[in-house]
TrEMBL record:
UniProt catalytic activity: N(6)-[(R)-dihydrolipoyl]-L-lysyl-[protein] + NAD(+) = N(6)-[(R)-lipoyl]-L-lysyl-[protein] + NADH + H(+)
The family this protein is said to belong to: Belongs to the class-I pyridine nucleotide-disulfide oxidoreductase family.
One Pfam family of this chain: Pyr_redox_2
Name the UniProt record assigns to this protein: Dihydrolipoyl dehydrogenase
PANTHER family: DIHYDROLIPOYL DEHYDROGENASE, MITOCHONDRIAL, DISULFIDE OXIDOREDUCTASE
This protein's record includes keyword NAD: yes
Residues the record lists as binding FAD: 54, 118, 147-149, 316, 322-325
Annotated GO CC locations: cytoplasm; transferase complex
UniProt cross-references to PROSITE patterns, sorted A to Z: PYRIDINE_REDOX_1
Native source species: Asticcacaulis benevestitus DSM 16100 = ATCC BAA-896
């Protein structure tokens, strides 16, 4: 192969990991190719994840607000009527605009885009098999694996994307089910459960553990569950689904206590299986370069380097939170390391947001983690009930909680539940990235009246000088 057809970097997978890696590589002047089998760039996030789910969350929230909140503040409109076909079209139009934007970014940064399935075929070689079966071989000084993840299947429950769906099916239902059972009280289950509840479904969430959203600060998760219950969600915690039988009258589920015991039956029009995601490496040719995945299927890495020289991996396919912005951080750091720069990601500073109403957002350690670490700590907490902007907007559920080192005042974790807190967690990320103390934020002027004042007041609470009431 001629020298000019040898790529500095070949990236397999066109999601947030892959396309951000491609952009950064292009910016740094590396000769770059990206290989994506879906036929569209953007990966899970843009096509069947973050973006379509947020489009439906936004639209369904407006629908519910128009139906239930307008009259209270003196806006009299006829009861809103759902046009699901139009809602789905608007969602798809947004997705298409975003994925086209990614394609434009590839051109702008001189990245060559190959449509097809990428397989590593030994050191420095990637074959691309197009949809027509044609195969071409690319030579690469560096290969970056960014093949992402897929839904974890639930034994005994076969997804047909009609009556039993995973997240992809739940983003495109053709009618609002009367009843929906969500298996798994994680982020997908609660976000997509919210969408269909707002549009009219009776939603029951079946969760294996005795709490919702494992990984979330427990005090916050307890408040979150209380709010969701008030909205009409039903929860069956400490329960497992052992079988699902689709039929003309819906899906009949067999449930059992997680610890074993008497079975019970539950019927629903639609069942959403959302029990987690697992790394995707099918047909990737890892064996050709001697890479073995770990027992859960993740590609082991150290600073994004795999066991094979010249092969790197980023995003959902490696350990760490399975989030788009984490994949993006991995991407930039990995490419900078390839280019001889100093790339680094601090996973303790990757924020999480659940885009329900109210939203939940956090960064850093949970109170349980801080307690377990043995570090002496202080907390400051401020409820939205006492925040003037939240009060005038009639959105008073939730709070902000700061956890700071008792000796140094360094912020260790911040947890928020409330309206639009996903937009407010960023200032805490900056604070923590600079090793900030709660007093740094407490002494920073915030605009009034805003919800962000609750963040400042919670920081003030660490030293007991909260002022607003
Ligand atoms: P992916 O986005 O999965 O991209 C991998 C790509 O690689 C895919 O397009 C796949 O087709 C392609 N591919 C795989 N194998 C090959 C191959 N051999 N050859 C060529 N191409 C291949 N995260 C957030 O941060 N915020 C959110 O709000 C959010 N919402 C979500 C909602 C849902 C319903 C779901 C399912 C996920 C959500 N996520 C969210 C998670 C987010 O989508 C992922 O963390 C993110 O997409 C991971 O990026 P990635 O690049 O590692 O992988
Ligand atoms: P998750 O890991 O968030 O939650 C899965 C839930 O299912 C857990 O509560 C778990 O205990 C439960 N569970 C596991 N096995 C079960 C079983 N057999 N029966 C009943 N419950 C069971 O996974 P989820 O919701 O599928 O989402 C996958 C990932 O996608 C998330 O971890 C997150 O990284 C990403 N995501 C992020 C979003 C965001 O940032 N807003 C939105 C949606 C997804």
């Amino acid at each position: 192969m001629a020298e000019d057809s040898i790529f500095d970097v070949v990236i397999i997978g066109g999601g947030p990991g892959g396309y951000n890696a491609a952009v950064r590589a292009g910016q740094l002047g590396l000769k770059t190719a990206i290989v994506e089998s879906r036929g569209v760039l953007g990966g899970t996030c843009l096509n069947v994840g973050c973006m379509p789910s947020k489009a439906l969350l936004h639209a369904s929230e407006l629908f519910e607000t128009a139906g239930h909140e307008f009259a209270n503040i003196g806006i009299e409109v006829p009861a809103p009527k759902l046009n699901l076909v139009q809602m789905m079209k608007a969602k798809q139009d947004s997705v298409t605009a975003l994925t086209k934007g990614v394609e434009f970014l590839m051109k702008k940064n001189k990245v060559t885009y190959f449509v097809g399935r990428g397989t590593i075929a030994g050191a420095g070689k990637v074959t691309v098999t197009g949809n027509d079966g044609a195969v071409q071989t690319l030579s690469a000084k560096n290969i970056v694996i960014a093949t992402g993840s897929e839904p974890t299947p639930l034994p005994g429950v076969d997804v047909d994307q009609k009556q039993i769906v995973d997240s992809t099916g739940a983003l495109s239902l053709s009618a609002v089910p009367k009843s929906m059972v969500v298996v798994g009280a994680g982020i997908i289950g609660l976000e997509l459960g919210s969408v269909w509840r707002r549009l009219g479904a009776q939603v029951t969430v079946v969760e294996f553990l005795d709490r919702i959203t494992p990984g979330m600060d427990t005090e916050t998760a307890t408040a979150f569950q209380k709010t969701l219950t008030k909205q009409g969600f039903a929860f069956k915690l400490g329960t497992k689904v052992t079988a699902a039988k689709p039929g003309a009258k819906g899906v009949e589920l067999t449930l059992e206590p997680a610890a074993g015991g008497a079975q019970e039956k539950l019927t629903a029009d639609v069942v959403l299986v959302a029990i987690g995601r697992r790394p995707y490496t099918k047909g990737l040719g890892l064996e050709s370069v001697g890479i073995a995945t770990d027992p859960r299927g993740f590609i082991p890495t150290s600073h994004f380097k795999t066991q094979a020289p010249g092969v790197w991996a980023i995003g959902d396919v490696i350990l760490g939170p399975m989030l788009a912005h984490k994949a993006e951080e991995d991407a930039v750091a990995c490419i900078e390391l390839i280019a001889g720069k100093a790339g680094h990601v601090d996973y303790n500073l990757v924020p999480s947001v659940v885009y329900t109403f109210p939203e939940v957002a956090w960064v850093g350690q949970t109170e349980e983690q801080v307690k377990a670490s043995g570090v002496a700590y202080k907390t400051g907490k401020f409820p939205f009930m006492a925040n003037s902007r939240a009060k005038i907007n009639h959105e008073t559920d939730g709070f902000v909680k700061f956890i700071a080192d008792a000796k140094t005042d360094k912020v260790l974790g911040v947890h928020m539940i409330g309206p639009q807190v996903g937009e407010m967690v960023g200032e805490v990320c900056v604070l923590m990235a600079f090793g900030g103390a709660s007093e740094d934020l407490a002494r920073t002027c915030h605009p009034h009246p805003t919800r962000s004042e609750a963040v400042r007041q919670a920081a003030m609470g660490v030293e007991n000088w909260t002022m607003q009431a």
